[in-house]
Specification:
This protein is an alpha/beta fold. It contains five helices and six strands; from the N terminus they run E-E-H-H-E-E-H-E-H-E-H. It has a three-stranded parallel beta sheet. It binds adenosine-5'-diphosphate.
């Protein structure tokens, strides 16, 4: 598995699957979720409505509609509560479940935003360390996907990922 970080808007990527940092209703929120729904169009909201929500730490998949990628994997990260509320394990399970879904759907690549580090307030550095460590651990357990990309929205996030990946 090849891991890289790029600085970009995740809703503009021509890839297999992008991950959406949703809330548990799957009916729209801020940040990546808002950008995904605006770019994908109203069919995405319909598809999400039919899923009936998603618990924290789990993942659901839909088509991407007007987004240039093929699939959107919706996941619900933990809200940061100061670190004593199992947030780290929930965040790790988000990455784990998404990678499992990607393998099951025979996806060759997957692009992640920095889940929970926006509206949900998870500190960027420990969140990035969990993202990378969980993907590395999954690499040993499952075959694929071939490529994992961490899509950073801002320069600070990009610096954090780059320093942890080198
Ligand atoms: P959460 O609610 O899980 O915290 P957010 O969507 O608020 O999710 O933010 C998660 C991360 O995604 C933040 O680091 C934010 O800066 C970043 N982000 C927001 N919009 C985009 C986008 N269009 N593409 C990539 N990353 C984004």
């Amino acid at each position: 598995m090849y891991m890289q970080a790029i600085q970009d808007d995740i809703t503009t990527l021509h890839v297999d699957a992008v991950v959406n940092a949703a809330n548990s209703s799957l009916l729209g929120g801020g940040g990546v979720d808002d950008a995904s729904h605006r770019a994908a169009g109203p069919d995405l909201l319909e598809a999400c409505r039919s899923l009936g929500g998603c618990p924290t730490g789990e993942a659901r998949i839909t088509r991407a509609y007007h987004l240039p990628c093929q699939w959107i994997i919706h996941t619900v990260g933990p809200v940061w509560q100061g670190g004593k509320d199992n947030e780290a394990e929930l965040l790790a399970s988000c990455y784990r479940n998404r990678l499992k879904l990607a393998v099951r759907q025979h996806m060759t690549s997957i692009d992640f935003p920095a889940i929970s580090t926006g509206v949900y307030g998870y500190p960027a550095e420990p969140a990035a360390a969990i993202a990378i460590a969980t993907c590395r651990a999954c690499q040993q357990q499952y075959a694929g996907p071939d490529r994992v990309c961490f899509v950073c929205f801002d320069a600070r996030s990009m610096m954090i990922y780059q320093s942890l990946l080198t």
